[in-house]
Amino acid sequence: MLYKYYNKNCFDWMDSQDSNSITAVVTDPPYGVREYTEGEIKKRRLGKGGIWRIPPSFDGHKRNALPRFSVINESPKERENVYNFFHEWGKKLYRILVPGGHIFIASTPLLSDIVSHAMREAQFERRGEIIRTVTTLRGGDRPKGAEDEFKELSIIPRGMWEPWELFRKPLSERTIAINLRKWHAGALRREHPNTPCGDLFTIGKTPKIERVIAPHPSIKPQQFLRKLVYASLPTGNGIILDPFAGSGSTLAAAEYHNLRSIGLEIDSEFYNMGKDAIPRLAQLYR
Ligand SMILES: C[S@@+](CC[C@H](N)C(=O)[O-])C[C@H]1O[C@@H](n2cnc3c(N)ncnc32)[C@H](O)[C@@H]1O
Question: Mutation test of ligand 1: which of 36, 136, 251 has the most ligand atoms closer than 8 Å to its C-beta?
């Protein structure tokens, strides 16, 4: 077992770590900050509204609740909260990440600009954006209360992709080669010698078998995470951190590749889910 998984607040945990002790980060944070606060999670568990809403059903299937990020996007105060959260987080991360360390952060097209701005201000270099094509149930709605009158309209595009922002801590050495030798960081590992890590992945919805093992509202597919964790450690040495580990899907992907990882999850229910799920997810599709 090469992973460590703790029921902790990542902000506190990062403060307790040595400088330059983490090699890469692959994480899926609470995009809008608010949806994973204690109060909102409680409402979701009770099935009582809040920021989580059930998308309209048009085919008789039961749907899972999704957070309404448009609520956040419409309020300057909420946008400021998102910026402050990621800026604070980025500054703490900067200290513990090695020079040249990469960070992959899942986001949403509605808020990724704010995350990116906050991370740049925390001194990280933006290195691109990875696109995961996935048809979500987000967006595509008709104007509320006038669905019949405006049945040919949708007020926002139906989400068909998910952006993962890519950042890097600036190198400390003169060249990437020297930085790689010293810190095992600075570049992305190739999937095969002739195939550089790409920025478009046609990997859709998380398969049912994984959602049954780990019924977390935001679980990401192993097939996709395995590619990211592999790319994140250029020499295969070092430690991958997932500060918002949820059910531990990133740690499971790292374990699959025999890579070392650390995950933090603040919510004890999700943490207990993860303790059981990680070894089972890591064993899938071998
Ligand atoms: C979007 S989910 C990640 C889910 C994950 N991708 C999975 O596959 O299970 C974000 C997670 O971060 C957790 N979280 C929120 N704030 C946190 C904090 N300060 N420290 C650690 N975990 C936190 C939430 O409880 C939630 O489980």
Answer: 36
Q: Which residues line ligand 1 (CB under 6 A)?
A: 9-11, 28-30, 36, 214, 216, 218-220, 243-244, 246-247, 249, 264-267, 270
Q: Tell me if 151 sits within 8 A of 142, measured CB to CB.
A: yes
Phi and psi torsions of 120, nearest 5°: -65, -40
Residue with tokens 């790319």: 231
pLDDT block averages, 10 residues each, the chain of length 286 = 97 98 98 87 84 69 75 85 96 98 95 96 98 84 93 92 97 98 98 94 94 96 98 98 98 98 97 98 97
CATH of the domain at 44: 3.40.50.150
CA atoms within 13 A on the CB side of 131: 8
Strand residues in 121-183 grouped as ranges (E) = 125-133, 161-168
Range of the structural domain that residue 157 is part of:
3-283
Domain count, the chain: 1
